[in-house]
Amino acid sequence: MTIKVTFHGACGIVTGSCYEVRTAKAAVLIDCGMFQGTKSIKELNYAPFAFDVAKIDAVLLTHAHIDHCGLAPKLMKAGYKGAIVATRPTADLLTYVLPDSGYVQETEVTRLNRRNRQRGRPPVEPIYCRADGEACAKHVTPRASDKWFDAAPGIKARFWDAGHILGSASIELLVEDGTSRKGQPLRLLFSGDIGTGDNMLQHPPRGPADVDYLFVESTYGDRLRPKVTQAQRSATVRREIQAGLRAGGIILIPAFAVERTQQLLFDLDYLFEHGQLPNLPVFVDSPLATKATSVFAKYLRRAAGGAYATAFSRPNLHFVEDADVSRKLSRLQSGAIIIAGSGMCDAGRIRHHLKNHLSNPTTTVLLVGYQAPGTLGRLLSQAVPMVRIHGEEIVVNARIRILGEYSGHADQSGLVAWVRDRLPVAQNIFVVHGEEPARAGLSDALVAAGLPKGSLRLPQIGETVRLTASGAKTERIRSRVNVAAIATFDWHNAYADTVLALRRSLDAAGSDGARQGLLRRMRALLNDAPTIQSKARSRHL
Ligand SMILES: [Zn+2]
Protein backbone atom coordinates (compact mmCIF):
# COMPACT_ATOMS: atom_id res chain seq x y z
CA MET A 1 0.00 0.00 0.00
CA THR A 2 1.35 3.38 -0.85
CA ILE A 3 0.55 7.01 -0.35
CA LYS A 4 1.73 9.43 -2.98
CA VAL A 5 1.80 13.20 -3.01
CA THR A 6 2.10 15.19 -6.23
CA PHE A 7 2.96 18.87 -6.22
CA HIS A 8 0.94 20.55 -8.97
CA GLY A 9 1.82 24.17 -8.12
CA ALA A 10 3.35 26.63 -5.65
CA CYS A 11 6.87 25.19 -5.62
CA GLY A 12 9.52 27.78 -6.46
CA ILE A 13 6.68 30.26 -6.85
CA VAL A 14 3.97 31.30 -4.40
CA THR A 15 0.90 30.79 -6.56
CA GLY A 16 -1.06 27.87 -7.98
CA SER A 17 -1.21 25.93 -4.70
CA CYS A 18 -2.41 22.39 -5.38
CA TYR A 19 -1.16 19.20 -3.76
CA GLU A 20 -2.64 15.81 -4.59
CA VAL A 21 -2.66 13.08 -1.94
CA ARG A 22 -3.40 9.69 -3.45
CA THR A 23 -3.86 6.26 -1.88
CA ALA A 24 -4.97 2.98 -3.44
CA LYS A 25 -8.54 3.86 -2.46
CA ALA A 26 -8.90 7.60 -2.90
CA ALA A 27 -7.38 10.94 -3.85
CA VAL A 28 -7.84 14.42 -2.39
CA LEU A 29 -6.54 17.79 -3.46
CA ILE A 30 -5.28 20.26 -0.89
CA ASP A 31 -6.15 23.58 -2.59
CA CYS A 32 -6.84 24.18 -6.26
CA GLY A 33 -5.25 27.56 -6.73
CA MET A 34 -4.75 29.88 -9.64
CA PHE A 35 -1.32 30.82 -10.98
CA GLN A 36 -0.58 34.55 -10.74
CA GLY A 37 2.35 36.69 -11.82
CA THR A 38 3.94 36.98 -15.26
CA LYS A 39 1.77 36.36 -18.33
CA SER A 40 3.66 33.10 -18.92
CA ILE A 41 2.85 31.94 -15.38
CA LYS A 42 -0.79 32.94 -15.85
CA GLU A 43 -0.96 30.91 -19.08
CA LEU A 44 -0.55 27.78 -16.93
CA ASN A 45 -4.16 28.36 -15.83
CA TYR A 46 -5.35 27.58 -19.35
CA ALA A 47 -3.54 24.22 -19.57
CA PRO A 48 -5.43 21.01 -18.78
CA PHE A 49 -5.09 19.72 -15.21
CA ALA A 50 -2.08 17.46 -14.75
CA PHE A 51 -4.27 14.83 -13.05
CA ASP A 52 -7.37 12.85 -13.95
CA VAL A 53 -10.24 15.02 -12.68
CA ALA A 54 -12.59 12.00 -12.48
CA LYS A 55 -10.24 10.30 -10.02
CA ILE A 56 -10.32 13.06 -7.39
CA ASP A 57 -12.68 12.33 -4.47
CA ALA A 58 -12.49 15.58 -2.52
CA VAL A 59 -10.97 19.05 -2.60
CA LEU A 60 -10.03 20.69 0.70
CA LEU A 61 -9.38 24.41 0.56
CA THR A 62 -7.11 26.17 3.05
CA HIS A 63 -8.47 29.69 2.45
CA ALA A 64 -10.25 32.08 0.12
CA HIS A 65 -7.23 33.64 -1.58
CA ILE A 66 -7.44 33.07 -5.30
CA ASP A 67 -4.00 31.42 -5.53
CA HIS A 68 -5.39 28.68 -3.25
CA CYS A 69 -8.98 28.29 -4.51
CA GLY A 70 -9.18 30.05 -7.88
CA LEU A 71 -9.14 26.97 -10.14
CA ALA A 72 -11.89 25.11 -8.26
CA PRO A 73 -14.54 26.40 -10.75
CA LYS A 74 -12.35 25.20 -13.63
CA LEU A 75 -12.23 21.79 -11.94
CA MET A 76 -16.03 21.65 -11.86
CA LYS A 77 -16.19 22.84 -15.46
CA ALA A 78 -13.91 19.89 -16.28
CA GLY A 79 -16.48 17.50 -14.80
CA TYR A 80 -15.50 17.28 -11.14
CA LYS A 81 -18.45 16.11 -9.03
CA GLY A 82 -16.89 15.41 -5.63
CA ALA A 83 -17.01 17.51 -2.47
CA ILE A 84 -15.25 20.84 -2.02
CA VAL A 85 -14.75 21.50 1.68
CA ALA A 86 -13.66 24.64 3.53
CA THR A 87 -14.16 26.32 6.90
CA ARG A 88 -17.42 28.21 7.34
CA PRO A 89 -15.95 31.75 6.95
CA THR A 90 -13.97 30.59 3.89
CA ALA A 91 -17.16 29.14 2.37
CA ASP A 92 -18.88 32.52 2.96
CA LEU A 93 -16.00 34.43 1.35
CA LEU A 94 -15.96 32.05 -1.62
CA THR A 95 -19.55 33.01 -2.49
CA TYR A 96 -18.05 36.38 -3.51
CA VAL A 97 -14.44 35.52 -4.38
CA LEU A 98 -15.14 32.80 -6.98
CA PRO A 99 -17.83 34.67 -9.00
CA ASP A 100 -15.59 37.77 -8.93
CA SER A 101 -12.70 35.69 -10.25
CA GLY A 102 -14.97 34.43 -13.05
CA TYR A 103 -15.90 38.01 -13.86
CA VAL A 104 -12.21 39.00 -13.97
CA GLN A 105 -11.54 36.11 -16.40
CA GLU A 106 -14.43 37.20 -18.61
CA THR A 107 -13.34 40.84 -18.80
CA GLU A 108 -9.67 39.96 -19.34
CA VAL A 109 -10.56 37.60 -22.17
CA THR A 110 -12.92 40.15 -23.77
CA ARG A 111 -10.02 42.63 -23.85
CA LEU A 112 -7.57 39.98 -25.05
CA ASN A 113 -9.94 38.87 -27.83
CA ARG A 114 -10.35 42.46 -28.99
CA ARG A 115 -6.58 42.61 -29.40
CA ASN A 116 -6.44 39.11 -30.92
CA ARG A 117 -8.97 40.22 -33.53
CA GLN A 118 -6.88 43.28 -34.37
CA ARG A 119 -3.80 41.08 -34.69
CA GLY A 120 -5.59 38.41 -36.75
CA ARG A 121 -5.33 35.77 -34.04
CA PRO A 122 -8.08 33.30 -33.05
CA PRO A 123 -10.19 34.16 -29.99
CA VAL A 124 -9.66 32.40 -26.63
CA GLU A 125 -12.23 31.18 -24.09
CA PRO A 126 -12.20 32.38 -20.49
CA ILE A 127 -10.96 29.75 -18.03
CA TYR A 128 -14.38 30.05 -16.44
CA CYS A 129 -17.02 32.74 -16.08
CA ARG A 130 -18.99 34.33 -13.28
CA ALA A 131 -21.76 31.68 -13.45
CA ASP A 132 -19.15 28.90 -13.05
CA GLY A 133 -17.78 30.71 -9.98
CA GLU A 134 -21.28 30.99 -8.51
CA ALA A 135 -22.03 27.31 -9.13
CA CYS A 136 -18.74 26.28 -7.54
CA ALA A 137 -19.28 28.44 -4.44
CA LYS A 138 -22.72 26.87 -3.94
CA HIS A 139 -21.09 23.44 -4.12
CA VAL A 140 -18.74 24.15 -1.17
CA THR A 141 -19.46 22.28 2.07
CA PRO A 142 -18.56 24.25 5.20
CA ARG A 143 -16.92 22.41 8.12
CA ALA A 144 -16.08 23.57 11.63
CA SER A 145 -12.42 23.92 12.61
CA ASP A 146 -10.85 21.47 15.10
CA LYS A 147 -13.24 18.61 14.23
CA TRP A 148 -12.37 15.51 12.24
CA PHE A 149 -14.49 14.70 9.23
CA ASP A 150 -14.35 11.98 6.58
CA ALA A 151 -12.88 13.59 3.47
CA ALA A 152 -12.66 10.50 1.26
CA PRO A 153 -12.53 6.71 1.75
CA GLY A 154 -9.72 6.11 4.26
CA ILE A 155 -8.84 9.81 4.63
CA LYS A 156 -9.98 11.93 7.57
CA ALA A 157 -9.31 15.66 7.70
CA ARG A 158 -9.29 18.43 10.29
CA PHE A 159 -8.93 22.22 9.89
CA TRP A 160 -6.69 24.22 12.23
CA ASP A 161 -6.75 28.01 12.48
CA ALA A 162 -3.80 29.35 10.42
CA GLY A 163 -4.23 33.01 11.45
CA HIS A 164 -3.57 34.28 7.91
CA ILE A 165 -6.97 35.67 6.83
CA LEU A 166 -10.55 35.20 7.95
CA GLY A 167 -11.31 31.47 7.79
CA SER A 168 -7.76 30.43 6.87
CA ALA A 169 -6.73 26.96 7.93
CA SER A 170 -3.96 24.44 8.03
CA ILE A 171 -5.20 20.98 7.06
CA GLU A 172 -4.33 17.80 8.93
CA LEU A 173 -4.93 14.48 7.21
CA LEU A 174 -5.15 11.06 8.79
CA VAL A 175 -4.52 8.59 5.99
CA GLU A 176 -5.26 4.90 6.44
CA ASP A 177 -3.42 2.13 4.57
CA GLY A 178 -0.37 4.15 5.36
CA THR A 179 3.03 3.08 6.41
CA SER A 180 3.66 5.07 9.58
CA ARG A 181 5.93 3.92 12.35
CA LYS A 182 3.41 2.53 14.77
CA GLY A 183 1.02 0.90 12.36
CA GLN A 184 -1.20 3.94 12.84
CA PRO A 185 -2.73 5.97 10.03
CA LEU A 186 -0.24 8.37 8.51
CA ARG A 187 -0.55 11.97 9.74
CA LEU A 188 0.12 14.75 7.22
CA LEU A 189 -0.11 18.46 7.93
CA PHE A 190 -0.39 21.11 5.20
CA SER A 191 0.29 24.56 6.60
CA GLY A 192 -1.71 26.61 4.09
CA ASP A 193 -0.59 30.21 4.49
CA ILE A 194 0.58 30.99 8.04
CA GLY A 195 -0.31 34.28 9.69
CA THR A 196 1.92 36.58 11.68
CA GLY A 197 0.32 35.96 15.07
CA ASP A 198 -0.16 39.69 15.63
CA ASN A 199 -3.01 40.28 13.19
CA MET A 200 -5.67 42.17 15.14
CA LEU A 201 -8.44 40.51 13.13
CA GLN A 202 -7.20 36.92 13.50
CA HIS A 203 -6.02 34.52 16.19
CA PRO A 204 -2.41 33.32 16.19
CA PRO A 205 -1.89 30.14 14.14
CA ARG A 206 -2.49 26.78 15.81
CA GLY A 207 -1.81 23.19 14.84
CA PRO A 208 -1.05 19.67 16.03
CA ALA A 209 2.36 18.31 17.01
CA ASP A 210 3.81 14.91 16.17
CA VAL A 211 2.98 14.36 12.51
CA ASP A 212 4.66 12.12 9.96
CA TYR A 213 5.01 14.62 7.14
CA LEU A 214 4.81 18.39 7.21
CA PHE A 215 4.24 20.70 4.23
CA VAL A 216 5.15 24.27 5.16
CA GLU A 217 4.78 27.49 3.21
CA SER A 218 7.85 29.72 2.82
CA THR A 219 6.59 32.98 1.24
CA TYR A 220 8.78 35.10 3.54
CA GLY A 221 11.20 32.31 4.43
CA ASP A 222 14.22 34.51 3.75
CA ARG A 223 13.00 37.64 5.52
CA LEU A 224 12.97 38.84 9.08
CA ARG A 225 10.58 41.65 9.89
CA PRO A 226 10.70 43.68 13.06
CA LYS A 227 7.57 43.19 15.16
CA VAL A 228 5.14 45.98 14.44
CA THR A 229 2.40 46.96 16.86
CA GLN A 230 -0.91 48.30 15.63
CA ALA A 231 0.03 51.73 17.03
CA GLN A 232 3.32 51.75 15.07
CA ARG A 233 1.59 50.66 11.90
CA SER A 234 -1.13 53.29 12.26
CA ALA A 235 1.57 55.92 12.81
CA THR A 236 3.26 54.91 9.55
CA VAL A 237 -0.04 55.04 7.68
CA ARG A 238 -0.71 58.49 9.17
CA ARG A 239 2.73 59.80 8.10
CA GLU A 240 2.33 58.44 4.57
CA ILE A 241 -1.16 59.85 4.13
CA GLN A 242 -0.15 63.23 5.56
CA ALA A 243 2.79 63.32 3.12
CA GLY A 244 0.40 62.38 0.31
CA LEU A 245 -1.96 65.21 1.29
CA ARG A 246 0.96 67.66 1.41
CA ALA A 247 2.00 66.54 -2.10
CA GLY A 248 -1.47 67.72 -3.10
CA GLY A 249 -2.75 64.78 -5.15
CA ILE A 250 -4.91 61.72 -4.81
CA ILE A 251 -3.83 58.77 -2.63
CA LEU A 252 -4.23 55.39 -4.34
CA ILE A 253 -3.98 52.15 -2.39
CA PRO A 254 -4.01 48.95 -4.46
CA ALA A 255 -5.45 46.59 -1.87
CA PHE A 256 -6.23 42.94 -1.60
CA ALA A 257 -9.97 42.59 -1.20
CA VAL A 258 -9.91 40.03 1.57
CA GLU A 259 -8.27 40.98 4.88
CA ARG A 260 -5.86 43.74 3.82
CA THR A 261 -8.66 46.15 2.90
CA GLN A 262 -10.37 45.49 6.22
CA GLN A 263 -7.10 45.97 8.17
CA LEU A 264 -6.59 49.29 6.40
CA LEU A 265 -10.12 50.39 7.22
CA PHE A 266 -9.47 49.61 10.89
CA ASP A 267 -6.28 51.63 10.96
CA LEU A 268 -7.89 54.54 9.11
CA ASP A 269 -10.87 54.41 11.51
CA TYR A 270 -8.47 54.61 14.45
CA LEU A 271 -6.66 57.61 12.91
CA PHE A 272 -9.90 59.45 12.11
CA GLU A 273 -11.40 58.70 15.54
CA HIS A 274 -8.29 59.96 17.34
CA GLY A 275 -8.11 63.15 15.30
CA GLN A 276 -4.79 62.11 13.73
CA LEU A 277 -6.12 62.53 10.21
CA PRO A 278 -8.74 64.91 8.85
CA ASN A 279 -12.00 63.18 7.92
CA LEU A 280 -11.11 62.92 4.24
CA PRO A 281 -13.27 60.73 2.01
CA VAL A 282 -12.20 57.11 1.62
CA PHE A 283 -13.54 55.19 -1.38
CA VAL A 284 -13.42 51.40 -1.39
CA ASP A 285 -13.64 50.99 -5.16
CA SER A 286 -13.85 47.23 -5.31
CA PRO A 287 -17.15 45.32 -5.35
CA LEU A 288 -15.31 42.26 -4.04
CA ALA A 289 -13.71 44.15 -1.14
CA THR A 290 -17.13 45.58 -0.29
CA LYS A 291 -18.70 42.12 -0.15
CA ALA A 292 -15.74 40.64 1.74
CA THR A 293 -16.09 43.46 4.27
CA SER A 294 -19.69 42.40 4.89
CA VAL A 295 -18.47 38.87 5.68
CA PHE A 296 -15.87 40.28 8.09
CA ALA A 297 -18.55 42.41 9.75
CA LYS A 298 -20.71 39.32 10.26
CA TYR A 299 -17.97 37.29 11.97
CA LEU A 300 -16.45 40.18 13.91
CA ARG A 301 -19.86 41.20 15.19
CA ARG A 302 -20.28 37.69 16.54
CA ALA A 303 -16.79 37.68 18.04
CA ALA A 304 -16.76 41.14 19.57
CA GLY A 305 -20.37 42.10 20.08
CA GLY A 306 -20.41 44.74 17.36
CA ALA A 307 -17.49 46.84 18.60
CA TYR A 308 -15.52 46.18 15.45
CA ALA A 309 -18.23 46.87 12.91
CA THR A 310 -18.09 50.67 13.30
CA ALA A 311 -14.85 50.79 11.29
CA PHE A 312 -16.86 49.67 8.27
CA SER A 313 -19.67 52.21 8.58
CA ARG A 314 -18.00 55.60 8.95
CA PRO A 315 -19.76 58.60 7.36
CA ASN A 316 -16.63 59.42 5.31
CA LEU A 317 -16.27 55.83 4.07
CA HIS A 318 -17.89 55.07 0.72
CA PHE A 319 -18.21 51.63 -0.85
CA VAL A 320 -18.34 52.05 -4.63
CA GLU A 321 -20.31 49.28 -6.32
CA ASP A 322 -21.30 50.90 -9.57
CA ALA A 323 -18.76 51.02 -12.43
CA ASP A 324 -20.09 54.45 -13.54
CA VAL A 325 -19.48 55.88 -10.08
CA SER A 326 -16.01 54.33 -10.18
CA ARG A 327 -15.28 56.11 -13.46
CA LYS A 328 -16.51 59.41 -11.98
CA LEU A 329 -13.87 59.06 -9.26
CA SER A 330 -11.34 60.05 -11.92
CA ARG A 331 -12.59 63.64 -11.47
CA LEU A 332 -11.11 63.64 -7.97
CA GLN A 333 -7.67 65.18 -8.10
CA SER A 334 -6.81 65.61 -4.40
CA GLY A 335 -7.88 65.16 -0.79
CA ALA A 336 -9.19 61.61 -1.06
CA ILE A 337 -8.07 58.01 -0.60
CA ILE A 338 -9.08 55.41 -3.18
CA ILE A 339 -8.65 51.79 -2.14
CA ALA A 340 -9.10 49.59 -5.21
CA GLY A 341 -8.26 46.06 -6.27
CA SER A 342 -6.38 44.21 -7.33
CA GLY A 343 -3.59 44.32 -4.80
CA MET A 344 -0.87 43.52 -7.36
CA CYS A 345 -2.43 45.93 -9.92
CA ASP A 346 -2.71 43.17 -12.53
CA ALA A 347 -6.51 43.43 -12.83
CA GLY A 348 -9.48 45.39 -11.54
CA ARG A 349 -10.36 49.05 -11.17
CA ILE A 350 -6.98 50.10 -9.76
CA ARG A 351 -5.57 49.91 -13.31
CA HIS A 352 -7.90 52.68 -14.47
CA HIS A 353 -6.95 54.85 -11.50
CA LEU A 354 -3.26 54.22 -12.10
CA LYS A 355 -3.68 55.07 -15.77
CA ASN A 356 -5.30 58.35 -14.76
CA HIS A 357 -2.90 59.36 -12.02
CA LEU A 358 0.55 57.76 -12.42
CA SER A 359 1.90 60.55 -14.61
CA ASN A 360 0.97 63.17 -12.02
CA PRO A 361 3.80 63.93 -9.57
CA THR A 362 1.32 64.91 -6.83
CA THR A 363 -0.22 61.39 -6.81
CA THR A 364 0.75 59.00 -4.03
CA VAL A 365 0.55 55.22 -4.50
CA LEU A 366 0.83 53.16 -1.32
CA LEU A 367 1.76 49.52 -1.92
CA VAL A 368 0.61 47.53 1.08
CA GLY A 369 1.12 43.89 0.12
CA TYR A 370 3.17 41.23 -1.62
CA GLN A 371 3.79 42.01 -5.29
CA ALA A 372 4.49 38.92 -7.40
CA PRO A 373 7.28 39.20 -9.97
CA GLY A 374 6.11 40.41 -13.36
CA THR A 375 3.00 42.15 -12.03
CA LEU A 376 2.41 45.87 -12.50
CA GLY A 377 2.64 46.27 -8.72
CA ARG A 378 6.12 44.73 -8.67
CA LEU A 379 7.24 47.01 -11.52
CA LEU A 380 5.98 50.06 -9.62
CA SER A 381 7.76 48.90 -6.47
CA GLN A 382 10.97 48.74 -8.54
CA ALA A 383 10.62 52.43 -9.48
CA VAL A 384 10.42 51.87 -13.24
CA PRO A 385 10.13 55.17 -15.18
CA MET A 386 7.32 54.01 -17.47
CA VAL A 387 4.73 51.23 -17.53
CA ARG A 388 2.21 49.85 -19.99
CA ILE A 389 -1.44 49.64 -18.92
CA HIS A 390 -4.08 48.32 -21.33
CA GLY A 391 -1.53 48.68 -24.12
CA GLU A 392 -0.80 52.36 -23.36
CA GLU A 393 2.53 53.76 -22.23
CA ILE A 394 2.23 55.68 -18.98
CA VAL A 395 5.07 57.70 -17.46
CA VAL A 396 5.45 57.11 -13.72
CA ASN A 397 5.85 60.46 -11.98
CA ALA A 398 3.75 59.57 -8.93
CA ARG A 399 5.24 59.04 -5.49
CA ILE A 400 5.41 55.25 -5.06
CA ARG A 401 5.62 54.29 -1.39
CA ILE A 402 5.97 50.76 -0.01
CA LEU A 403 4.45 49.99 3.37
CA GLY A 404 6.10 46.82 4.67
CA GLU A 405 4.13 47.01 7.92
CA TYR A 406 1.20 45.01 6.59
CA SER A 407 1.67 41.34 6.09
CA GLY A 408 -0.57 38.35 6.24
CA HIS A 409 2.41 35.99 6.28
CA ALA A 410 4.70 34.92 9.09
CA ASP A 411 8.32 35.90 8.49
CA GLN A 412 11.27 33.50 8.79
CA SER A 413 11.24 33.46 12.60
CA GLY A 414 7.46 33.01 12.66
CA LEU A 415 7.67 30.07 10.25
CA VAL A 416 10.51 28.46 12.22
CA ALA A 417 8.48 28.87 15.43
CA TRP A 418 5.43 27.36 13.75
CA VAL A 419 7.46 24.34 12.57
CA ARG A 420 9.02 23.94 16.04
CA ASP A 421 5.54 23.79 17.58
CA ARG A 422 4.71 20.90 15.24
CA LEU A 423 7.72 18.76 16.28
CA PRO A 424 8.42 15.94 16.34
CA VAL A 425 7.98 15.36 12.62
CA ALA A 426 8.73 11.67 12.10
CA GLN A 427 9.67 11.86 8.43
CA ASN A 428 10.09 14.79 6.03
CA ILE A 429 9.34 18.47 5.96
CA PHE A 430 8.45 19.74 2.49
CA VAL A 431 9.21 23.42 2.01
CA VAL A 432 6.70 24.76 -0.52
CA HIS A 433 4.94 27.97 -1.56
CA GLY A 434 7.95 30.27 -1.85
CA GLU A 435 10.21 31.70 -4.50
CA GLU A 436 13.53 29.81 -4.58
CA PRO A 437 15.54 32.24 -2.37
CA ALA A 438 12.72 32.14 0.21
CA ARG A 439 12.60 28.34 0.25
CA ALA A 440 16.37 28.16 0.59
CA GLY A 441 16.27 30.79 3.35
CA LEU A 442 13.69 28.91 5.38
CA SER A 443 15.51 25.59 4.89
CA ASP A 444 18.76 27.12 6.17
CA ALA A 445 16.94 28.61 9.16
CA LEU A 446 15.32 25.26 9.98
CA VAL A 447 18.71 23.53 9.83
CA ALA A 448 20.15 26.26 12.07
CA ALA A 449 17.25 25.57 14.47
CA GLY A 450 18.42 21.96 14.75
CA LEU A 451 16.39 20.10 12.14
CA PRO A 452 18.36 17.46 10.25
CA LYS A 453 19.17 18.71 6.75
CA GLY A 454 18.22 15.34 5.25
CA SER A 455 14.65 15.67 6.49
CA LEU A 456 14.02 18.80 4.41
CA ARG A 457 12.71 18.51 0.87
CA LEU A 458 12.22 21.23 -1.75
CA PRO A 459 9.93 19.58 -4.31
CA GLN A 460 9.40 20.80 -7.87
CA ILE A 461 6.14 21.40 -9.68
CA GLY A 462 5.17 18.09 -11.28
CA GLU A 463 7.10 15.98 -8.74
CA THR A 464 5.44 12.91 -7.22
CA VAL A 465 6.79 11.47 -4.00
CA ARG A 466 5.96 8.14 -2.39
CA LEU A 467 5.61 8.32 1.39
CA THR A 468 7.33 5.23 2.80
CA ALA A 469 8.23 3.97 6.27
CA SER A 470 11.70 5.40 5.75
CA GLY A 471 10.73 8.77 4.34
CA ALA A 472 9.64 10.24 1.03
CA LYS A 473 11.07 8.89 -2.20
CA THR A 474 10.75 10.80 -5.46
CA GLU A 475 8.90 8.61 -7.88
CA ARG A 476 8.85 10.85 -10.93
CA ILE A 477 9.05 14.44 -12.04
CA ARG A 478 6.71 15.37 -14.84
CA SER A 479 7.56 18.98 -15.19
CA ARG A 480 5.02 20.98 -17.12
CA VAL A 481 7.18 24.02 -17.08
CA ASN A 482 10.54 25.49 -16.21
CA VAL A 483 9.28 27.81 -13.51
CA ALA A 484 12.60 29.56 -13.00
CA ALA A 485 12.60 30.69 -16.63
CA ILE A 486 9.19 32.33 -16.53
CA ALA A 487 8.56 33.20 -12.90
CA THR A 488 10.29 36.53 -12.59
CA PHE A 489 10.78 38.15 -15.98
CA ASP A 490 9.17 36.44 -18.94
CA TRP A 491 9.29 37.41 -22.62
CA HIS A 492 6.15 39.55 -22.19
CA ASN A 493 8.00 41.62 -19.57
CA ALA A 494 11.07 41.77 -21.84
CA TYR A 495 8.87 42.87 -24.75
CA ALA A 496 7.21 45.67 -22.74
CA ASP A 497 10.64 46.72 -21.49
CA THR A 498 12.04 46.80 -25.04
CA VAL A 499 9.09 48.83 -26.38
CA LEU A 500 9.51 51.35 -23.55
CA ALA A 501 13.30 51.54 -24.13
CA LEU A 502 12.72 52.16 -27.84
CA ARG A 503 10.24 54.93 -27.02
CA ARG A 504 12.78 56.59 -24.69
CA SER A 505 15.56 56.33 -27.30
CA LEU A 506 13.31 57.87 -29.96
CA ASP A 507 12.35 60.70 -27.61
CA ALA A 508 16.01 61.32 -26.81
CA ALA A 509 17.15 61.31 -30.47
CA GLY A 510 18.01 64.80 -31.72
CA SER A 511 16.10 64.87 -35.00
CA ASP A 512 13.60 63.00 -37.15
CA GLY A 513 16.52 61.87 -39.29
CA ALA A 514 18.22 60.34 -36.25
CA ARG A 515 14.96 58.60 -35.33
CA GLN A 516 14.64 57.16 -38.84
CA GLY A 517 18.26 55.97 -38.63
CA LEU A 518 17.63 54.31 -35.27
CA LEU A 519 14.57 52.48 -36.57
CA ARG A 520 16.45 51.41 -39.73
CA ARG A 521 19.20 49.88 -37.58
CA MET A 522 16.57 48.10 -35.44
CA ARG A 523 14.91 46.65 -38.55
CA ALA A 524 18.27 45.52 -39.91
CA LEU A 525 18.93 43.73 -36.62
CA LEU A 526 15.60 41.97 -36.95
CA ASN A 527 16.64 40.99 -40.46
CA ASP A 528 13.21 42.15 -41.48
CA ALA A 529 13.69 43.42 -45.03
CA PRO A 530 10.23 44.37 -46.33
CA THR A 531 8.71 47.38 -44.63
CA ILE A 532 5.05 47.61 -43.74
CA GLN A 533 4.61 50.15 -46.54
CA SER A 534 6.07 47.88 -49.21
CA LYS A 535 3.92 44.95 -47.97
CA ALA A 536 0.85 47.15 -48.32
CA ARG A 537 1.90 48.13 -51.82
CA SER A 538 2.49 44.52 -52.87
CA ARG A 539 -1.01 43.62 -51.71
CA HIS A 540 -2.44 46.23 -54.07
CA LEU A 541 -0.65 44.77 -57.07
ZN1 LIG B 1 -3.11 33.56 1.25
SSE layout and pairing:
Layout: E1 3-7, E2 19-22, E3 27-30, H1 39-43, E4 58-60, H2 66-69, H3 72-77, E5 83-87, H4 88-118, H5 130-139, E6 140-143, E7 149-152, E8 155-161, E9 169-175, E10 186-190, E11 213-217, H6 230-247, E12 251-254, H7 260-273, E13 282-284, H8 287-304, E14 317-319, H9 323-328, E15 337-340, H10 350-357, E16 364-367, H11 376-381, E17 386-389, E18 392-395, E19 399-402, H12 412-422, E20 429-432, H13 436-448, E21 456-457, E22 463-468, E23 471-477, H14 483-487, H15 491-508, H16 512-525, H17 532-540
Parallel strand pairs: 3-4, 4-5, 5-6, 10-11, 11-20, 12-15, 12-16, 13-14, 13-15, 16-19, 20-21
Antiparallel strand pairs: 1-2, 1-22, 2-3, 7-8, 8-9, 9-10, 17-18, 22-23
Helix pairs in contact: 4-5, 4-8, 6-7, 12-13
The structure holds zinc ion (ZN).
Concise description?
The chain has 541 residues and is an alpha/beta fold. Helix content is 36%, strand content 19%. It is built from 17 helices and 23 strands.
Features:
Rossmann fold; 3 domains; globular; binds zinc ion; 23 strands; Metallo-beta-lactamase, Chain A; 17 helices; seven-stranded mixed sheet; 541 residues; disordered C terminus; alpha/beta
